[in-house]
Amino acid sequence: MVQAKTWILTKHFDGFPKDSNFELKVEELPEPKDGEVLLEAVFLSVDPYMRVFSRFSMNEGNMMIGTQVARVIQSKNPAFPVGSHVVARSGWRTHTVCDGTGLTPIMADWPQGVSLSLALGTIGMPGLTALYGIEEVLGLQKGETLLVNAAAGAVGSVVGQIAKLKGCKVVGSAGSDAKVAFLKKLGFDEAFNYKTVGSLEEALKKASPDGYDCFFENVGGSFSDVALQQMKNFGRIAVCGSISGYNDTTPQTGPYPHLTMIVKQLKMEGFMQTRWEHKHPESLKRLMGWLKEGKLQSREHVTKGFENMPAAFMGLLRGENIGKAIVAV
After folding, report:
1. How many CB atoms lie within 10 A of CB 308?
2. Which parts of the sequence belong to the Enoyl reductase (ER) domain (predicted)?
3. Which of 30, 101, 273, 281 is in Cβ range 3.0-4.6 Å of 128 for a Cys bridge?
4. Distance between CA atoms of 182 and 151, rounded to whole angstroms?
5. 42 and 102 in one domain?
6. Which residues pair with residue 98 across a beta bridge?
7. Residues 149, 47: one domain?
8. Are residues 246 and 129 in the same domain?
9. Which element (helix H / strand E) includes 72?
10. CATH code of the domain containing 246
11. How would you classify the pairing of strands 169-174 and 145-148?
12. Are 316 and 300 in contact (CB under 8 A)?
């Protein structure tokens, strides 16, 4: 019998998460039946969406939601041989018995020397989010100017690089000088620390005096209010996240953008990458191709130890990571 460690949500978050919101439990797993496999987590993802989705997709006492790269250690399902790796939406747990439903095998030609953890980042959900936001939502064109906030995160850092591949000017906002240096290394044309600029409006104007054709929105709140004023007429906004408000106990209110959107004739669209799931295999190959060619760089913030899942999650929400936040078991 294999023992699985799991992290449970003991109480719904009220404001910023606390250690007391989580409890580590151990459970005995049955032997796999015909058609089933036993998975062992290798890497687990921590993502901002977990903070929001926990409220309406989880009950107190449920295991924390999430995705992992797992190794097949026992198999009675020929589609998943022992030793193969999969991406699994198994949540915060070390071991899982399942029938294979929802498992995505790691692509067969995954290059040696490329960590499988990237299947949770640049060659996974965040990379797909960046790609679809740029191509499907914004329709970004060569020569346009793109603004992306939370630009040093798992999604934002890929957004900026893909935009540069398409021949665009890219302006990124991040929350530390180290993150700004990272963006410059990635090839962003302009980058600034929103926490230290005297005026966000002036920083945006300085970075692109003519305004912005497109805005990849990850933050929301007051940043969004200021950024919309800098959009060009007929500008497009892809709304991917709103992390500035995820931990608020009282919902943010106003100012409201309607008049700006009318006068500038802006288009704003929220999205999730699952809308284009039918394109995932092709899109992942494109992302991997850019990575192999050296056109796409990836950086990870790795926390070691399954016992540190809550700390990694809270660190992510505090903005401690540069690039994708990962837990290595």
Report:
1. 14
2. 15-327
3. 273
4. 10
5. yes
6. 37
7. no
8. yes
9. strand 68-75
10. 3.40.50.720
11. parallel
12. no
Number of domains in the chain: 2
Task: Indicate whether 280 belongs to any domain.
Answer: no
Q: Are residues 144 and 218 in the same domain?
A: yes
Structure tokens at 178: 């180290």
Strands lying side by side in the sheet with 231-239? 190-193, 169-174, 145-148, 212-217, 231-239, 267-270
- The domain of 268 spans 125-274
For residues 37 and 192, give the distance between their C-alpha atoms in angstroms, rounded to a whole number.
48
- In Å, what is the CA distance from 172 to each residue of 95, 271, 321? 39, 20, 16
Q: Which residues pair with 172 in a beta bridge?
A: 148, 191
CA 214 to chain centre: 20
Does one domain contain both 268 and 141? yes
For residues 142-179, one letter each, b for 16 or more C-beta atoms within 10 angstroms of the residue's C-beta and e for the rest, the string is eebbbbbbbbbbbbbbbbbbbbbebebbbbbbbbbeeb
78 domain residue, yes or no: yes
Query: Domain of 67: which CATH number?
Result: 3.90.180.10
135, part of any domain: yes
Q: Mark whether 147 and 64 lie in a shared domain.
A: no
For the chain, the 3-state helix, strand and coil shares in percent, each to the nearest 5, are 35, 25, 40
In a domain, 181, yes or no: yes
Residue 21 shares a structural domain with residue 110:
yes
pLDDT per position in the chain (329 positions), as tens?
A: 899 999 999 999 999 999 999 999 999 999 999 999 999 999 999 999 999 999 889 999 999 999 999 999 999 999 999 999 999 999 999 999 999 999 999 998 999 999 999 999 999 999 999 999 999 999 999 999 999 999 999 999 999 999 999 999 999 999 999 999 999 999 999 999 999 999 999 999 999 999 999 999 999 999 999 999 999 999 999 999 999 999 998 988 888 899 999 999 999 999 999 999 999 999 999 999 999 999 999 999 999 999 999 999 999 999 999 999 999 99
- What is the spatial distance between Cα 269 and Cα 197, in angstroms, rounded to a whole number? 28
Is residue 5 within 8 A of residue 26, CB to CB? The reply is yes
